[in-house]
Amino acid sequence: MRQTIFITVLGHFGAAFAALCMPPFYAHILQQNFSSQTLVMAGWYFTLPTLAAAISNPLWGKLADRIGIRASLIRAHWGLCLSFIVTGMARTPWEFAFGLTLQGLLGGTFAASNAFLASFLPGKRLATLLSVMQGSARTALFAGPAIIGLFSDGQNLLHIFFYLAVFPGLAGLILYLLPAKTSTPAAHTIADNTGTAPAGAGALSASSLYRYQALFTIGTVLTYPYFVIDLAQRLNMSAAWAGALFGLPHALFLVLAWPIGRHVNFSNAQTALARFSALTCAGLLLQVLANNLPLLATGRILMGVGMTGAYLAINALAASTTRKASAGQHFGKLEGANKWGAVMAGILASGLATSMSYTAPIWLACALLAGLSIFIESKRL
């Protein structure tokens, strides 16, 4: 079982690194390869793969419960590999858009990996492994933009997609080592047939969790599309520094997940989500008011602490509402909610950045995260 878990996490990291390192540089790619007039469309291009994933993830999840979760996981890796190759071959803005759309339609490695783990892990251990998977994604978000930023001077970033295709391609091959079937004791099923968590988990329904996931995603992803270009204009910061700061909150997840995770469990997950959402809001507020690097870095650190706790809470709630028989559908819907949130965030970011300023999306993110915190607390009273 340990080998199976290791291969699943390693394969996801490779795919996540490839998928998550490029979005902060879409504006740079558009300006470098196409007309400078396409720069204002960065947020829309950011939205394309997430929109496609929002539509396809629940469908892939439902299919996985029928054809086998392992087969679905391999499909997701190879689909991502193919889409990266197509994206790297783009010669027009429309071809670039098509490649990004394929990434969303054919990918879905995060949901597929989580569903595979849910098929043979009990509730508490599943929650822990979901946090490990989240750490894999955070590592990719931290290391990816920082590394790509080093290649931003004098290099055509569009061609990097060819190299990135190697990661999910190899992951798909390695996954052949996974067992075709894994037996799961009946005791590993943690939610009842209604899809509602047991009383110890705060009796949160899966549908409520999907809504919380979507809203938290909107509140954080709103700041992604124009982060690099905002810092370049507001603080005259290089792409390399901006890439490193972009990844800072995600790097903190790796440091703080274990100590914070000791205090987040099924019984207090909703409270934790509310309070860490508020802390994320405070970090964003400090960033939007920052006029120097130390203040901005402090805001990113607060944001990192808040995001870590919030993701751990969501993982605990996800594990508490999982049923073995429909694990693929459950995680497909959860990731679909995440992607729909990212879609809405990209649309809002584009509209606000082009009509107002690059900091306008951050102000809206603060309002949404504050609202989420207040709503969850009010529902618990």
UniProtKB/TrEMBL annotation:
Transmembrane segments: 42-60, 72-90, 96-117, 129-151, 157-178, 209-227, 239-260, 272-289, 301-319, 340-356
Coiled-coil intervals: none
InterPro entries: MFS, MFS_dom, MFS_trans_sf
Subcellular localization: Cell membrane
A Pfam family assignment: MFS_1
Xref: SUPFAM superfamilies: MFS general substrate transporter
Subcellular location, principal: membrane
Topological type in the membrane: Multi-pass membrane protein
Protein keywords: Cell membrane, Membrane, Transmembrane, Transmembrane helix, Transport
Major facilitator superfamily (MFS) profile domain location: 4-381
Name of the featured protein: MFS transporter
Source organism: Undibacterium umbellatum
Taxonomic lineage from the root: Bacteria, Pseudomonadati, Pseudomonadota, Betaproteobacteria, Burkholderiales
